[in-house]
Automatic annotation (TrEMBL):
Family: Belongs to the 'phage' integrase family.
One Pfam family it belongs to: Phage_integrase
Top-level taxon of origin: Bacteria
Glycosyltransferase found in the keyword field: no
GO function term, MF aspect, one: DNA binding
SUPFAM superfamilies with a match to the protein in the record: DNA breaking-rejoining enzymes
Name of the featured protein: Tyr recombinase domain-containing protein
InterPro entries the UniProt entry points to: DNA_brk_join_enz, Integrase-like_cat_sf, Integrase_catalytic, Tyrosine_recombinase_XerCD
Length: 570
């Protein structure tokens, strides 16, 4: 797609439009177009970054949802419901029968798109955007908007939480309190700070500004495209929206009325991968295209902080929470993966009041995503089978038995023993049984259940994991008289602690860590954790980047030689 030439032509056409049409179009689109037409990608991004830094705003859009329900809406900075976007979400929920978790994802994506439209005053202008003439082969106005949105995503931080220092678990409404646009460090530096990662040959390579992975960018663009299509089909205001300007592609699907495998049909879908590619970022190419970006040290909870959090949990009253965060910390699961763990309810001991016999029965007979794998002799391990739909994420993670010396405090640290984990699991199942008694009906099989009043006994969602963590760290902050503050962390921090502990303290091979994390390549694991450096060096070179790079390379070479010696394909 000849984007640069097409955009320059659009500016010429725009300047020749009559004043009446210009008034209808306003100046927002023209401002966007002037920056989108910049031929050099770096210059274009710098121009966007400077524009976003210069804007003074009165808040951003935010997603409002009632916990434990399907009630969801998008509100503007003035706290009024944004009707078009909220109706779009409800149509996904009721007309398209999407799960609430999918709709929540659309809401988060759409909030970003509405922010972008607000910055450029485009929401009103889109009513008349079909008046803009387009030369054959040129870039369409809706393409300009979507490409500009993709560049905006490259400038904002991933996982940003406004006013994270404020007490309270719900940060949604706090988006409306912002007075400036949150930008990532590369946009704030206007290109003076260049992100870089190491490639497979341990060489530094310049990477994109974007903090989102390539696979995460396309779904956000898809939501924006689907929303524009909804506006044209379901509203009078945007009945003339030229939705045909959005690039599309054909995909062939196999189907059968019975088995779903016979025959084929053609389906037309938005070509969001092409949009992502045209903006300068690769589309979703799975693990092969991903390189990983270094994890900032501020995102990794320390052993001491994690111990403070776990000490705060009551092993009986908080049994489900203790098991949940034990799995995040010592198995390295993602919060959503942990929430999705299921058990075969028929394999759970019926008489949980019998402590010793029930614990023994769990080891011998518990089935589902979590079970005890007996090895030869008396040894065995608790193993969790987890993962999403991607092949790489499907994995079995064992509870490993390790002891080490903390390089910071000199204290001995270790993972829970198999027997200790059995005890944690037992008390969590006891509490689960009590919570499930409030859920009249068939056992849904999920290990973790909600304890909130309006959803007691129902499966715990990924959002519920975050809510639990936020409530606990806020409570810890109060109970410690403001001496232990973990409120800037997310549940995902335990996964980072798992990875960095295995690497630096237990010296596990990087290939092994990558497999347990469910990464699609060792490169992602290496680039994500290579810059995690200890605060003090208790051993020569320990924790230095050069030392870690050497360690990774040595481990990779050893594994490669071992695989070649067995005649396996590398």
């Amino acid at each position: 797609m000849k984007i640069g030439i097409g955009l320059v032509y659009l500016i010429v056409i725009y300047n020749k439009m009559n004043n009446d049409t210009k008034r209808r179009m306003g100046l927002g689109y023209k401002e966007l177009l002037s920056r989108a037409a910049l031929m050099t990608e770096t210059v274009r991004l710098i121009a966007y970054a400077r524009y976003y830094k210069s804007l003074q705003i009165n808040g951003l859009y935010y997603v409002h949802q009632v916990d434990g329900s399907n009630a969801i809406a998008i509100c503007g900075p003035d706290h009024k419901t944004h009707h078009e976007s909220t109706t779009f979400l409800l149509s996904q929920l009721h007309d398209k029968k999407c799960q609430i978790k999918t709709v929540e994802g659309h809401a988060r994506n759409l909030k970003k798109f509405l922010d972008f439209l607000m910055f450029w005053l485009l929401e009103d202008e889109m009513e008349s955007i079909h008046h803009v003439p387009v030369k054959s082969g040129g870039t369409y106005p809706l393409e300009v908007i979507l490409l500009g949105f993709a560049d905006y995503l490259r400038c904002i931080p991933n996982g940003y939480k406004p006013f994270s220092e404020l007490k309270g678990s719900n940060h949604s409404i706090q988006w409306s309190m912002l007075k400036s646009i949150p930008l990532n460090k590369y946009a704030m530096a206007e290109g003076k700070v260049v992100p870089a990662v190491r490639n497979d040959h341990n060489q530094l390579r310049k990477v994109d500004w974007c903090e989102y992975s390539p696979g995460a960018l396309a779904p956000i663009l898809y939501t924006a495209c689907a929303y524009l299509e909804f506006l044209r089909e379901r509203t009078k205001r945007y009945v003339n929206l030229p939705i045909e300007q959005i690039p599309r592609k054909e995909i062939r699907e196999s189907y059968s009325l019975i088995s779903g495998t016979a025959g084929s049909r053609i389906r037309i879908v938005f070509d969001v991968e092409n949009l992502a590619h045209d903006s300068g970022t690769a589309g979703p190419s799975g693990g092969k295209g991903r390189q990983g970006t270094p994890i900032d040290r501020s995102e990794v909870i320390s052993e001491a902080e994690a111990n403070s959090f776990f000490t705060f949990l009551n092993p009986y009253e908080d049994a489900q929470d203790l098991l949940l965060f034990t799995i995040l910390r010592y198995f390295g699961l993602r919060p959503g993966e942990a929430a999705n763990i299921q058990i075969d309810e028929s394999s759970v001991p019926t008489n949980l009041e019998m402590y010793h016999s029930s614990r023994e029965a769990l080891v011998l007979s518990l089935l589902g995503n979590i079970k005890f794998i007996q090895e030869k002799g008396l040894h065995g391990n608790w193993v969790i089978h987890t993962g999403w739909k991607t092949k790489a994420s499907q994995r079995e993670v064992p509870l490993i038995n390790h002891k080490a010396i903390d390089p910071y405090s000199g204290a001995e640290i270790h993972f829970p023993t198999q027997d200790q984990f059995t005890d944690i699991l037992y008390w969590a199942l006891v509490q689960r049984s009590d919570l499930m008694s409030h859920n009249h009906g068939k056992d849904h099989g999920f290990l973790f259940v909600s304890s909130s009043n309006n959803s007691r006994g129902k499966p715990l969602s990924e959002k519920g994991v975050y809510s639990k963590f936020n409530k606990l760290v806020n409570k810890l902050w109060v109970n410690s008289q403001n001496s232990i503050d973990l409120r800037s962390y997310y549940p995902h921090t335990f996964r980072h602690l798992f990875a960095t502990s295995l690497c630096l303290r237990y010296r596990r091979p990087i290939e092994e860590i990558s497999k347990w994390l469910g990464h699609s390549s060792v490169t992602i694991t290496q680039n994500s954790y290579i810059h995690w450096i200890p605060e003090t060096n208790t051993e020569i070179e320990k924790g230095e980047v050069a030392h870690m790079s050497k360690l990774y390379k040595e481990q990779a070479d050893i594994s490669e030689r071992a695989m070649l010696s067995r005649g396996e394909e590398v």
